[in-house]
Design a protein that fits this description.
This protein is α+β, with helices and mostly antiparallel strands. It has 4 helices and 12 strands. The protein binds the ligand CCCCCc1ccc(-c2ccc(S(=O)(=O)CCO)cc2)cc1/C=C\c1ccccn1.
């Protein structure tokens, strides 16, 4: 995989996206609006437009008990699970298996009236990162999705408008060992999740429609996805 044409871009985008995900909301400076809250989940967005199109950066933080960062990234990255949790997905194809931790996807998402249907072509890379703050703490895990090109699938040929996205899912496992030295159970672990995304809708879509879609769909997506991981892992050994 180190010789693959995408490797240099993957290296630089992963470093950039992880640094961005690690930057707290406060440190990011002004402009972040809290637009959704549900229990431990907080979702922020910044209203930004490019060529009159809303491309609002989104940053969500969530803490989920009973699962690890490796498990969250495993179920987010794996194509075999995606139809189970990605509600707006209509069609998903793995165009290329670059390596066991890097895939190229083509996805079409359900049409959202009155905008035209969208598709997205992106590489997806999963990686374990050393825990710089706490050397003997559990590692971080991340999945970065970044739009790319593929000669056989040029944009805007069929009925779909090609969107462009950058997504980073950064996960930090927290272990609170039981007092009496008993073996670790899922009651002693939790995962701090940071989900960042910037989606350029490609062709024109009314900013009001886009913002309504994001306001409705993002909280639903993160809640549904994390509940899916809890449900898939509850009777399985902990994957650190
Ligand atoms: C007019 C409507 C334009 C938006 C359509 C759309 C574009 C992109 C995407 C999308 C969102 C998350 C990813 S991912 O995080 O990489 C996970 C892998 O699937 C990839 C694609 C979705 C949706 C449509 C709805 C929507 C919007 C947010 C959240 C959820 N659904």
């Amino acid at each position: 995989a180190c010789q693959h044409r995408l490797w240099p871009e993957i290296e630089s985008v992963v470093k950039q996206q992880v640094a961005w995900a690690r930057t707290g909301i406060g440190e990011c400076g002004q402009g972040w609006q809290l637009f959704a809250e549900d229990g431990e989940m907080r979702m922020y967005r910044r209203e930004e437009e490019v060529d009159g199109m809303a491309v609002d950066p989104l940053k969500a933080v969530h803490t989920v008990p009973g699962i690890t960062g490796h498990e969250v990234c495993h179920y987010f990255f794996g194509p075999q699970y995606r139809y189970d949790w990605e509600t707006t997905l209509e069609q998903m194809t793995v165009l290329e298996t670059v390596s066991d931790d890097t895939l190229v996807f083509l996805q079409t998402h359900k049409r959202i009236w009155p905008a035209s249907q969208r598709d997205v072509l992106f590489w997806s890379h999963m990686r374990k990162l050393p825990n710089e703050n706490d050397r003997d703490g559990p590692d971080l895990w991340t999945v970065v999705n970044n739009s790319t090109t593929h000669l056989d699938y040029p944009p805007n040929v069929g009925k779909c408008v090609r969107i462009y996205l950058k997504v980073c899912l950064l996960c930090q496992t927290r272990v609170d060992p039981p007092k009496d030295g008993a073996p670790l159970t899922r009651d002693n672990i939790s995962c701090k999740i940071t989900y960042c995304s910037v989606v350029n809708p490609g062709g024109w879509a009314p900013a009001s429609v886009l913002r309504a879609v994001y306001k409705r769909e993002y909280p639903k997506f993160l809640k549904r996805f994390t509940a899916y991981v809890v449900n898939q892992t509850k009777n399985k050994p902990i994957m650190f």
